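Same chain as my last thread, 260 residues:
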Amino acid sequence: MVVISVYQREVIFEAVRAMYSDVATDPGRTFHFPTGRAACEFLGYPVEYLDAIPASAVESFAGVGYPFAAGVIREGDVVLDVGSGSGTDALIARILVGDRGRVIGLDMTAAMRDKLGRNTARMGVTNVEPLDGNAEEIPLPDASVDVVTSNGVINLVPDKAAAVAGMLRVLRPGGRVQIADIVVEKIPSDACRSQPQLWAECIVGATTEASYLATFEQAGFRDVELLGRLDYFARSSSEETRKVASGFGAHAILLRAFKP
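reply #2:
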């Protein structure tokens, strides 16, 4: 297994910031992964939710699944969205938690946080808060949220165990997670994984399905359940990306788990 140095970790984060800054500021551009409303509809987002939030949130959507299919968010919950982007999931979570709840959108890309703030204002809600930070070091107190949601993020994170442990830490007892993410059947070579710039491509940093689920179990989550799989990259506009994804067996999964 390749060891990611501190320097490489920072370069990985910078590559991810650059990629998703582009998604935020130039949503009309064609990326190698599906984006925008067409991606949401392909992944199963109900039209009524997409119509209820600003189009400027949906246009920069870059998730890999529909985590709300897990059905774990309740009215009045405090929800942390890890890698919230421009706010598609954060604002849908706001619909579900209502006025009594709260949504925290954690993202390390300034352009995405800024866009989430503008979209929150456009939607006319006050209980959605953008927060600067990355998944490995969640800047929230212990036992401070009811639900963690994340969509296509942990595959981008070098220290996945730290990210999952952080989710467990910030959840209250009985808290829930709903996660959509990318996994692979065949781990990319150490030569690929040692190139930080490739991590932003969503495949190089991914781990296997078994390892992904085990990371949640080893962190202390219970009832870790795989709810579904999807050939996410089938909708990529790039023939090369489709070929690479197929070669590694890259696909999206939906996961639900609970904190004891």
